[in-house]
Amino acid sequence: MFKLSKRQIEISYWFVTHKAQLKKILIIFLIILNIGIWGYGIYNWIFYFLTTKDHEFLIKELIQEKINWSEYQLKARPQNLALSEITVLPSGKGYYDFVVEAENPNPKWAILNVNYRFKWSNHQSRIQKSSFLPQEKKFLITLRASSSILPRNPQIEFSNIQWRRITPHFKIPKIDKSEFPTKNVQFLRRSEILNLDRIRFEVTNQTVYSFWEMALKIILYQGRKIVGINQITANQFFSKETRLLETSWIEPIPLITKIIIEPEVDILDPNIFIPPKGRGEPK
User: Fold this and answer.
1) CATH number of the domain located at residue range(s) 177-274 in this protein
2) Could you state, in order of their start, the residue ranges of all structural domains in the chain?
3) Do residues 93 and 251 make contact, with C-beta atoms less than 8 angstroms apart?
4) Looking at the domain that runs over 75-165, which CATH code has it been given?
């Protein structure tokens, strides 16, 4: 037979004798709990109604477009080439030379390819191609463009511009124009034997690369005025090689005070490089 211990009997007796008090305590606790829940709810409703305008403003702020994408795209896209004034020079009867200095002002954009041609009146020159490294400045020239009239107010037209953003994954060989120094530059005036003005010079490829071809643009100045332009190409120009080059002008060249020889090699084109010990024809 199950028997209760003295301690169990005392606890049971206490509960029986204090049943009414325990019931009151439970009721009071539930009342307090209910008041607390209702009070908390009423407080939050009052707080919500008092801060409704601020809440709606925050919601609008969250869903409102904060970035001006039009302005961002305008700033992110590359800027157009900066151009100098175009110079036109006679190059024999019915032919003219054109030159303009162009600069890519973008530090993070290269131009892999750009087509250009000069236009005037109802005439236009042939389409030529070029490329630009970031922030590169170079001369764009066209030699012996045919025209039945003297070109006035010529314009340059660009097409098929292929921009390329410079990223860590887009590697460009580090080649500077100063690595193609020239020396022994001679400007030879025409004579009775040879009725042509000529320029002769030596150019050295000091880079570790060899190129299938490299252009050298010759710009002649009288003060700040361009009075002569020309171009000569060095084919299969190997690393550490020195080449003697010469080119001439049909039209007489006036007095010159400065000569610029600008090397140009399209290092953005991987096919321009001759493989080590390579010979033969470019791809």
Assistant:
1) 2.60.40
2) 75-165, 177-274
3) no
4) 2.60.40
Name every residue whose Cβ is closer than 8 Å to that of residue 89 and which is 6 or more positions away in sequence. 96, 97, 99, 226, 227, 228, 229, 251
CA-nearest of 104, 87, 192 to 141 is 87
Angle at 91 between CA 89 and CA 93, to 5 degrees: 120
Q: Which amino acid is at 255?
A: L
Token digits for 86? Answer: 């175009």
pTM score, two decimals? 0.72
Condensed to tens digits (0 to 9), the pLDDT of residues 35-64 reads 888 887 787 777 777 777 766 766 776 666
Q: HEC string of 142-160?
A: EEEEECCCCCCCCEEEEEE
Backbone angles phi, psi at 98, to 5 degrees: -125, 145
Pick from 210, 87, 66, 92: which is nearest to 152 by CA? 87
**Contact residues for 157 (Cβ-Cβ < 8 A; gap 6+):** 116, 117, 118, 119, 124
